[in-house]
Design goal:
76% of the residues lie in helices and 0% in strands. By secondary structure, the protein is mainly alpha-helical. Helix 7 runs antiparallel to helix 8 and helix 10 runs antiparallel to helix 11. The radius of gyration is 19 Å and the shape is globular. The chain has a domain of 69 residues. The protein is built from twelve helices and no strands.
């Protein structure tokens, strides 16, 4: 990670584009950089943002760093800025909906955001999964189950879809089917996927409850 930071900082001396900062942001997130590494990287991220304040790729990359730093209010601000510049930025709509769903009192806003994405792109598995989990967080697991089943049994499955289905099934009182879905998720290398803070909490809960 130290080497990557040095390479990006050196590249930025001659490359005034967003590229060094975007590469650095990606490395910080994928490498699970620590506080000191993030501090070393911050001046380049900030100076690039000042030079390119309306670049959606840069805004999106910086939001990913802020997620890793658990600065969720800033994540929301960055995603909202992306959508001001590009209202049809599908990944941002999906990610913003997920972030909002895990913030107190913002469930309705999360639903409105994911519904915008579904209106634009149709019922893609990733969007159905996000909407399903929003409904789970809002205390509506019965409404979530069919959406999560559609995502989990689609032609593009993801172990997180099965995990989220396990949560919804468990919340509706169907422990046996929840256990089946959780086994499918863990068999698909769930823990190698990116999981939100809420996902990690729910996974610990599911592993405890369905093991007992």
């Amino acid at each position: 990670m130290q080497d990557v930071i040095e390479v990006c900082l050196k590249a930025a001396q001659s490359d005034q584009s967003i590229q060094p900062a975007v590469v650095l942001a990606s490395a910080l997130v994928s490498g699970k950089a620590g506080d000191e590494e993030c501090r070393r990287a911050e001046p380049l991220l900030q100076s690039t943002m000042e030079a390119h304040p309306d670049n959606t790729d840069l805004l999106f990359s910086l939001a990913s760093v802020r997620i890793a730093q658990k600065q969720m209010d800033e994540v929301v601000r960055l995603y909202q800025r992306v959508l001001e510049l590009d209202p049809k930025h599908l990944i941002t709509l999906n990610n913003l909906a997920t972030v909002l769903s895990e913030l107190p009192g913002r469930g309705e806003e999360a639903l409105e955001t994911i519904d915008r994405a579904i209106d634009l792109a149709g019922e893609k598995p990733v969007l159905l999964d996000t909407k399903g989990m929003i409904l789970v967080h809002e205390g509506k697991p019965e409404q979530a189950v069919p959406l999560l089943e559609a995502a989990a049994f689609s032609s593009t499955p993801d172990p997180r879809y099965h995990f989220h289905l396990a949560v919804a099934r468990y919340r509706t009182g169907n422990a046996d089917k929840a256990r089946d879905a959780l086994q499918e998720a863990t068999g698909g290398n769930l823990k190698n996927e990116f999981l939100t803070e809420m996902d990690l909490q729910l996974l610990a809960e599911m592993e405890k409850e369905l093991r007992d």
